[in-house]
Design brief:
229 residues; alpha/beta; Rossmann fold; nine-stranded mixed sheet; 9 strands; globular
């Protein structure tokens, strides 16, 4: 059973992610800024990384001043950037969810739109909107491509093609405003990010749960030394 590192601001915010992984046969180790001491300790025995949702990524990380960003957690940014860079260096399977997808984009040289209208509700309740999944994409191969899905939406930041990191490929969009809803890496088949929250399984199509199966499967390959080179 593969062990996956799950980042979070605190243990309570990780519960849904942990449950989604455990129900697909993986183990989870919650990684929080409060308890983070070193990459070596955090990632000892870990075979995959799940970057979860949360507050905004500090715009200073992509060279911008504050302009709508809120809930910034510098300690979490520092921890997750270090963990993600380690994952890239080690070819470790990684899934980014909401903030996690945004952090992947920033870490790989992209930027973010700091405030988007219409993608969340007051009190951060889940809004609902449509997502078009591109045919031929890795993301589409996981959940089903060439279709428009209704998913939850709990973010007020995001990116369009202009903000996308050059080494990443957008594989899903909001059909009305072009906001990128999923990212993947042509170079790294084990790296995917999604803007919605598939861990809130009653708010997304059932097929979105396959993202956790995908991560667990890749983590098992990593653990077995069976990663592509």
């Amino acid at each position: 059973m593969a062990l996956i590192g799950v980042t979070a601001s605190n243990g309570s915010t990780a519960k849904n992610y942990v449950a989604s992984l455990e129900s697909r046969g993986a183990q989870a180790r919650v990684l929080t800024p409060e308890r983070f001491t070193s990459i070596e300790e955090a990632m000892d025995g870990v075979s995959g990384l799940l970057l979860t949702g949360g507050g905004d990524v500090d715009p200073a990380l992509y060279g911008e001043a504050l302009d709508g960003s809120m809930g910034i957690e510098p300690e979490r940014d520092e921890m997750e950037m270090a963990l993600f860079r380690y994952a890239i260096e080690e070819d470790m399977p990684t899934l980014g969810i909401c903030r996690g997808m945004q952090l992947i984009n920033v870490a790989m040289g992209g930027r973010l739109i700091q405030d988007l209208p219409g993608h969340t509700l007051p009190e951060f309740q889940s809004a609902v909107h449509q997502v078009y999944v591109s045919p031929g994409s890795r993301f589409g191969a996981i959940i089903g491509a060439g279709a428009i899905y209704r998913t939850n939406s709990r973010h007020h930041q995001g990116l369009k093609e202009a903000q996308r990191a050059p080494s990443l490929m957008a594989s899903a969009y909001h059909p009305e405003d072009g906001i990128v809803e999923a990212l993947e890496s042509p170079e790294h088949p084990w790296l995917v990010g999604v803007q919605c929250h598939p861990e809130r399984e009653n708010e997304v199509p059932k097929s979105f749960g396959k993202l956790f199966e995908w991560l667990a499967g890749w983590a098992e390959r990593y653990e077995a030394g069976d990663m592509p080179r």
